[in-house]
From TrEMBL:
<dbReference type="InterPro" id="IPR008243">
    <property type="entry name" value="Chorismate_mutase_AroH"/>
</dbReference>
<dbReference type="GO" id="GO:0008652">
    <property type="term" value="P:amino acid biosynthetic process"/>
</dbReference>
<dbReference type="InterPro" id="IPR035959">
    <property type="entry name" value="RutC-like_sf"/>
</dbReference>
<dbReference type="Pfam" id="PF07736">
    <property type="entry name" value="CM_1"/>
</dbReference>
<protein>
    <recommendedName>
        <fullName>chorismate mutase</fullName>
        <ecNumber>5.4.99.5</ecNumber>
    </recommendedName>
</protein>
<keyword id="KW-0028">Amino-acid biosynthesis</keyword>
<keyword id="KW-0413">Isomerase</keyword>
<keyword id="KW-0057">Aromatic amino acid biosynthesis</keyword>
<feature type="binding site">
    <location>
        <position position="5"/>
    </location>
    <ligand>
        <name>prephenate</name>
    </ligand>
</feature>
<dbReference type="GO" id="GO:0046417">
    <property type="term" value="P:chorismate metabolic process"/>
</dbReference>
<dbReference type="GO" id="GO:0009073">
    <property type="term" value="P:aromatic amino acid family biosynthetic process"/>
</dbReference>
<dbReference type="GO" id="GO:0004106">
    <property type="term" value="F:chorismate mutase activity"/>
</dbReference>
<feature type="binding site">
    <location>
        <position position="87"/>
    </location>
    <ligand>
        <name>prephenate</name>
    </ligand>
</feature>
Amino acid sequence: MYSVRGAITVENDTKEEILNATEELLKHILDFNKIEIKDIISVIFSCTKDLKSVYPAEAARKMGILHASLLCLQEMFVEGSMEKCIRILMFVNENKVQSEVQHVFLKEAKKLRPDLMKEFF
């Protein structure tokens, strides 16, 4: 088992933007790490306190992630932290060395962990 991290930001707190951004992030995580949906154990989604229009897990279900456990949480607020951000922590049932994992940070969230990102964009 291994875990994959990711994050993306949205411009506005709308259902459409949150679902589209979550789907974009999930697709990149799956593609870059060659993850099959059947191997996903669980996904934890967190959102900053300014995002409240929809649960990001709805995007995962729409993509066919039907048997993994999904949980949505509000990110801990820290003064001066990034706004309008969706974060993902995915657990995958596959043998891979953690150092081989490609974490994905998109849009403004690239600033969060530049040390974990390879240049794909």
